[in-house]
Amino acid sequence: MQSKEVELGGIPSSLYMVRIAVFTFGFLLNLLMFIILIRFRKPTDNILTTGIVPTMIDGLICMVNVASFAESMVKQMSGTQAYIICHFISSYAIIWALIAARVFINMLVTLFFFIQFLYPFMRIEQRRKPIRTVLIVGIPLSMATGIIPHLLTNRYAGDTNQCTTHSGAYFYAPMRLVTVFRLGVLVSFLYNFLLPVIGSIYLYHHVLRILRLRDKNRDAYKEVHLCSIMDNWFMLLFAGIAELEKFMVRYPNSHNIQYDPFRSAILMLILSLYSVVYPCLSIVFRRRYQRPILDCLVYMGMNPTDSWLAKRLNRSEASESRKQHTKTNEHPHRRPTGIYSHKNQH
């Protein structure tokens, strides 16, 4: 029995134009933010919370989407070029690998905040070497598991210059290979999406509860709350349907839904929009992105004190300073303790 294959193509050129326009803007924005965050970050900042790694991954996602127009020219190509485009661009394997890495980074940031606020004695912000080790090992692992559902689904026929794919319902192979592939698709869905997102939501719930109880600084709470919304709920919003479609289409011998190139292109467009929306909202709402931008403008000889960004940041910092001053004045006559109190008595 032959596998029922679907020829890739038939996507309107207008959709390619939209992708090129949107993701060219996203790539340039992420590239600019990547340079600014590297150049103007504080030496004491941890690499996880600076936004450097997520910005780099978002830029790569936008770049791959810009290059997606090449899949419409597979029939005019031949050899290695057509093979690479068919198996890595048309199958969205690279985008799914980068999305898996992005979800992994979001989970690490959540875990960082959880340890930092609930177990401050561990001084997680100072443990840079273990964090870098986790990044070096975890990112390639996530990307590898993200590619698994797309390893055996696309096929390039050199004699006809056709790139075809098939749904999991028509995946015919030896039973052992089918079992391994089923496990790989399931692990990819759980490890790269479901468990990290649910785990992050759960951990952020505890972090925000601790901040509400312990910290009178509302700005710190707002910053972490925004991080929670953008890293978890936005990811769930943009990636949820695409992840479900990938699982239902690619899972071997599951007669759920059939692969449709146009539907998948729309879902991948929505999924990848996360990498454009994220930096835009971060610039508008998050101090961790606003401060390096203002430092960059000052470095360039500009005077951004009257800009809306400076006013927003200064208003936030003034509020924080006022709250800290109020907190200090709550106990103005507090008696010193410890070794210094004994010295003052003498």
TrEMBL record:
<keyword id="KW-0472">Membrane</keyword>
<feature type="transmembrane region" description="Helical">
    <location>
        <begin position="82"/>
        <end position="99"/>
    </location>
</feature>
<feature type="transmembrane region" description="Helical">
    <location>
        <begin position="20"/>
        <end position="40"/>
    </location>
</feature>
<feature type="transmembrane region" description="Helical">
    <location>
        <begin position="105"/>
        <end position="122"/>
    </location>
</feature>
<feature type="transmembrane region" description="Helical">
    <location>
        <begin position="224"/>
        <end position="242"/>
    </location>
</feature>
<feature type="transmembrane region" description="Helical">
    <location>
        <begin position="134"/>
        <end position="152"/>
    </location>
</feature>
<keyword id="KW-1133">Transmembrane helix</keyword>
<feature type="compositionally biased region" description="Basic and acidic residues">
    <location>
        <begin position="319"/>
        <end position="331"/>
    </location>
</feature>
<keyword id="KW-0812">Transmembrane</keyword>
<protein>
    <recommendedName>
        <fullName>G-protein coupled receptors family 1 profile domain-containing protein</fullName>
    </recommendedName>
</protein>
<feature type="transmembrane region" description="Helical">
    <location>
        <begin position="180"/>
        <end position="204"/>
    </location>
</feature>
<feature type="region of interest" description="Disordered">
    <location>
        <begin position="319"/>
        <end position="346"/>
    </location>
</feature>
<feature type="transmembrane region" description="Helical">
    <location>
        <begin position="262"/>
        <end position="285"/>
    </location>
</feature>
